[in-house]
UniProtKB/TrEMBL annotation:
InterPro entries: AAA+_ATPase, AAA_lid_NorR, CheY-like_superfamily, Homeodomain-like_sf, HTH_Fis, P-loop_NTPase, Sig_transdc_resp-reg_receiver, Sigma_54_int. It comes from the Bacteria. Signal peptide: none annotated. It comes from Ilyomonas limi. Pfam families: AAA_lid_14, HTH_8, Response_reg, Sigma54_activat. Residues 7-126 form the Response regulatory domain. This is Sigma-54-dependent Fis family transcriptional regulator.
Length: 453
């Protein structure tokens, strides 16, 4: 896509920056829209079709995230996963800017920028977007969602068939499976094959929301509804109106939150905090959890009437150790992705690497395989990956004296003992323990809860 045909949104609370961007790009692009308040991003994305977003790293706002830029980047990626985002940052924010690349940003620009560099970066982002669109178009006939959801095993082919049958309906879907199996990819596949494919797809990790944030995040709030509510805010239900709402980690919400969610789903209405005016909603609901349906049906933990409401059809995603025939295909797929991303030559796996990949039990599932391949590509210097290049996460690769296979109880015992050992090593420091284990703090806390540690 050429600059002349593109539409760009620039969001920064510094009016001088917005003026500079507008002056630079107004004669270069088809449309440039500038905005000071990041709270207006969801509405602007809903109203306009942008090809690129220029987003500041820091705003003077009420969001207590530690960094507003990362917060809004995640919101944008929830609302518009394919929208390319270039972060605007100061020298002091370089570490945060690098973190933004892992969260899906295309690149970052340091203020003050060189005009030629900014235009060049914009052109590169647009070219990447164009290549992705061509790849999706080229692969749409061969897989569910282009190059993301892959599998040749019989169980994955059954899932693909199930998706093709349920996607065109408005049935509520519950996706079951261990962490890292690709539940979010299946949710996106259902949306992209549905009649709502051109409407918003909004993902929310509800398990990470506190009681105080739950209503505000999902239902929105009016200005002044609580101390820090300085602007009216659209909730995720409203953002997803007409499209699909994906609630991840649904099993982690409290009984109080469940009651509020059930009321909205029954009435198909949301009421913002601080308002008495209900807003009609039209969404297709997809939920996911890493617990079994039997565990979810424990009434001390989850309301059965809510289970029936969210579970018109269920899809169970198998762990990678139970579909080993897909493993090498996925490894090669990730190797191609990261070789391109890190500008490395295309690589092959030698016999020892293939044997190591096929003999491993993958407690971290596809996500663990993906990170293992990414690390191998980064560290490799040649065009062949050997077994020594494949280093699995410390939490999964601790010595184990059990037969590799489907013995989930042995794997759980191994994981629990490894977590205890690493936490003790760091004297109870959860941040350091999570870093060594290759987990986020949230993921580690979930494992602590799971094993009653």
């Amino acid at each position: 896509m050429s600059l002349k045909k593109c539409s760009i949104l620039a969001v920064d609370d510094d009016p001088d920056v917005l003026i500079a961007v507008r002056m630079l790009l107004k004669n270069e692009v088809q449309k440039i829209v500038t905005e000071k308040n990041p709270e207006n991003i969801p509405a602007l994305l809903k109203e306009h079709q942008f090809d690129l977003l220029l987003l500041d790293m820091n705003f003077k706002s009420s969001i207590n995230t530690g960094n507003e830029g990362l917060y809004w980047l995640k919101r944008v990626k929830d609302l518009k996963p394919n929208l390319q985002v270039i972060m605007i940052t100061a020298y002091a924010d370089i570490d945060l800017a690098v973190r933004s690349l892992k969260e899906g940003a295309f690149d970052f620009m340091v203020k003050p920028w060189h005009n030629e560099k900014l235009i060049s970066t914009v052109e590169d982002a647009l070219e990447k977007n164009h290549k992705q669109q061509r790849a999706e178009s080229r692969n749409s006939k061969d897989s569910i969602i282009g190059t993301e959801l892959l599998g040749e095993s019989e169980v994955m082919q059954d899932i693909f068939y199930k998706i093709s049958k349920i996607a065109p309906t408005d049935a509520n879907i519950l996706i079951l499976g261990e962490n890292g199996t690709g539940k979010d990819l299946i949710a996106k596949a259902i949306h992209q094959k549905s009649l709502r494919a051109k409407q918003p797809y909004v993902k929310v990790d509800v398990g990470a929301l506190t009681d105080s944030l739950f209503e505000s995040e999902l239902f929105g709030h009016k200005k002044g509804a609580f101390t820090d509510a300085r602007e009216e805010r659209e909730g995720r239900f409203e953002s997803a109106n007409g499209g699909t709402l994906f609630l991840d980690e649904i099993s982690n919400i409290s009984l109080t939150q469940q009651a509020k969610l059930l009321t909205v789903l029954q009435n198909r209405m949301v009421t913002k905090l601080g308002s008495n005016q209900p807003i009609p909603i039209d969404i297709r609901l997809i939920c996911a959890t890493n617990v079994t349906l039997a565990d979810l049906a424990n009434e001390n933990r989850f309301r059965k009437d809510l289970i029936y409401r969210i579970n018109t059809v269920e899809i169970t995603v198998p762990p990678l150790r139970k579909r080993k025939e897909d493993m090498l295909m996925l490894a090669k797929h990730f190797a191609n992705i990261y070789a391109t991303k890190y500008m490395k030559p295309a690589v092959e796996f030698d016999k020892s690497a293939i044997e190591k990949l096929q003999s491993y039990h993958y407690p971290g599932n596809v996500r663990e395989l993906q990170y293992t391949i990414e690390r191998a590509i980064i560290m490799s210097d040649g065009e062949v990956l050997h077994s020594s290049d494949l280093i699995f996460s410390p939490i999964e690769s601790a010595p184990v004296a059990v037969t590799v296979g489907d013995d989930d109880s042995n794997l759980s015992h191994l994981e629990k003992n490894t977590i205890l050992r690493v936490i003790e090593k760091h004297s109870g420091n959860i941040t350091k323990a999570a870093k060594e284990l290759g987990l986020t703090r949230t993921a580690l806390y979930r494992r602590l809860s799971k094993y009653d540690i």
